[in-house]
Amino acid sequence: MRFAITMFSLLGIASIIGTVLKQNEPYNNYIIKFGQFWFDIFEKLGLYNLYQAFWFLLILVFLIISTSLCVSRNTPKILKDYKKFQDRIREKSLLSFKHSYQFPLKEFSPKKITAFLKSNNYKVKHKIIEDNGDLIVAKKGDLQKLGYIFTHLAIVIISIGGLLDGNLVFKVQELIGVKQIQLVDQPLSQIPLTGRMSENNLSYRASMLLSEGDTKTAAILRAKEGYLVQEIPFSITLKDFNIEHYSTGQPKSFKSDLLVTDNETGQSINKTISVNKPLTYKGVTIYQAAFEDGGSQLDLLVWNLNSSQPSFQMNSEIFKNNKLTFENQNLTLEFKDFRKFNILEVSQNEEQKPKPTNVGPNFLYKVRNESGQAKEYQTYQLPIVIDGKYFFMSGMRNSPQEEFNYLKIPADENFSIKGFMTLKSLLNNPQKVNNAINKGINESAFTTSEKKEAFKSGTQNIINAFIKGGYNSVIETMDLNIPEQASFPDKERAIKTYINIIYLVSQELVRDYQDNNKGEIVFPINESPRFIQDALTAYSDSFFYGVPLYLELKDFEHVQASGLQLTKSPGQIWVYLGSILLVLGIFCMIYIQEIRLWIFRKKGSSSLIVSLATNRDRMDFDQYAIRLKDQIKKMTN
Amino acid sequence: MLENIKDKFLNYSFGLILTILTIFAIFEFHDFMDYYEIFILLGSAITFTWMGNMWPNFKNLFLNIFLFSFISIYLYQGSLEQIELNFFLKYFLSSQSAIMWMTALYPLSLIIYWVYLLSRQDFYGSLATKITWIATMMGFVGLLVRWYESYLISIDVGHIPVSNLYEVFILFCLITSLLYLYYEEKLDIKKMGAFVLIIITAAVGFILWYTFEKGANQIQPLVPALQSYWMKIHVPANFIGYGAFSMAAMISVAYLLKGKGILGNYLPELNVLDEMTYKAISIGFIFFTIATILGAVWAAEAWGGYWSWDPKETWALIVWLNYAAWLHLRLIKGLRGSILAWWSLAGLAVTTFAFLGVNLFLSGLHSYGEL
N or C: fewer beta carbons within 10 Å in chain B? Predict the structure, then answer.
């Protein structure tokens, strides 16, 4: 008993540790969190997979043994009690009971009393004691005692069921060296026998990631920092994967269309599974557990944001890398994810409350340079409305812990990125810029050629600074040009002038482009000033974008992958049976009251003794005893 | 004798009303229900009839909830816009208003219970009880109407309102107060309202903060994992457990105070308090056990295993072990007194952590109620 309680307490404490320390994470995370010293100690203790640790399983085994002993020791006694009437009791001890009554007697009919007690659900035994008198022994609520057996037996059954579904078999196999956890990623077919669990494995919870169209014949068992291959008696093909959404955008259902083919018979069945609706086949239950991209194909246009170079095409695939030489750097583009639906809080204009809207596809990629450093990008395919204006959004961050910083490129008249790209090409074309400045000067009110020349070189400087580094660079150059002692309003006025100059030159570039490309409407006609301002801001922000490399998503082919879980759990039925027994047992123990009753009449005596006893003395038992006594008294008077 | 006949008559009438309603529902709506739902409907009808027979006041509560919910649904006329347009909906019977009335009335009844405890005037005692009844009624009306409201948002959004922290906190208040009202009547211990209503008022405080700070009262559609008929049984059963354990803890507070001579003359006898703690913990334990088992059955269906050592599951096990030990000490060892009272009070801390703390501090599969 004491041992069982110790085991239960240990189980409780161990479980708490397991909830506080996140289980089954990659081992690197633990090293970062605890440092090498504590990492080693915790690993020895098995704290990262605590619920599968040897000592934890040992606690469970001890618990089963000690509870079984408890049950086996007490059961015979309880069963004996269950059958037995306590009819060897003395008058004296009857009178010493807490609920004992003695009253005068007129008429004594054991038959009548027996019938009365039986109608009150008592089991009754009438015993005539030769030289002493009549003893009626009655009892009810024996089930309460059985409750003890039920609950304790239930705990044993549930624990055994749990152990059946644990990985004890593998633990033993690992210990004697028959099986070994695999640490290196390699194709399933190349994994040696020591890394494979046969399909006869007693129980497992394995996972399988299937892209649309793929077929797999084995699943993966995660184990500590590695994995094992779990063979299954059938193959699974993912024909289709579907996500439905609510009108508000949250996911409504995940469904996988599966084709399951039996290895032996070759017969196959078609079945759609979803969360909460698994499929059980040959004792293995297949669950919808997760989903991710399955290697979507992306058609991209590669733009250089800071030059007049034209864009070029590139094809890529999620989970694959593309190599690229860009501005004399060897870059690796690592494509990580593609999402077809993205729900963001968006408002159509400033007055409207933001509401969740699907803003269309985005994709996630990393750009890694030669020294191995990488920045992460998230780019949306379609422009997103912000305060009534549409922008192409592309976020950049240096590490996954950071939030994305978004580059907002204004969409043009045709909701395309072309307008902006045209303007940045024009800005990076010295000839065009020169023409634009000249045109501006010719139309200006400057009279002398020196003034014109001075203004021209000033403007050229500003534009050059802007093209090389955006507004920041303009301000830096300006600091060199404006005298130190200039007052603040002067400086501010100067900045405004510079911004205005950049704007006017850009406007001239746009006007010139429109004149030479009649029929092709790129720039917004009515909203032109706002577009140019937004485009210049975007150009200036592009210097904080890491690499001036913009990927425009032209087209995609969406391929999804479904994460399945495959479970074989022979202990489940035992756990359920044990649970039913547990509830029954608790009910018996708490809500059935065991009552024993003795009615004794001494031979020739004119008084009757009524005594009651219960093993759980509750408050309402007092009233019950008195009521019962009164009824018996009435019967005998 | 006459009383007896009247009781019987009322019981039969109540049973009859429920039977008629059930038959009506099955005939009218069987196209929309699967077998499980018909089973749940029949089970509810039987349970409520039984509760009505066992506890006459439950009949009144049930009929009032029924009446007001239907008035409210009638006033909606199938459109959410009516909430703003209709006076009665706006101020009384829309789900949000009904819940707000509940949040106002529980703290009020707490105050009046304390007035009663200290003044010992029966008037205040019965007033506090009445207000608690009305608050409970309003809370249930609020939840039922919310259920209806969710279907008005969109047919596929509609679901029983036990799916997030906001909704289950309301459920917690209602179940705890129902349990209390039952024992108040059976054991004649009106004064305990002054203690039990403390925990309910604390929960009300959370609901208000959650509503006004986080806008948690918005109805959200169900994530795929929650789309299961098990939710209808698992969550309420769990909250009977939580509610009963909380009530037991508050009575233990009274027990400890009385044991130290504080408020000694105002509180019921120690053995009455002890008995009530025991009753609360045992009913809580049964329901908590059933709820955990149902949770395991559900987990086997949704997550691919009846037990995954998910933090919520593990803490449920710890709560279970805690009260199993409590009952063990009391039933098998016959222990009584302040140790058990302290233990049940500590049990509240464990239960609260399992209920709220896990959602706040630990992540896992049960992440529906994140703050």
Answer: N
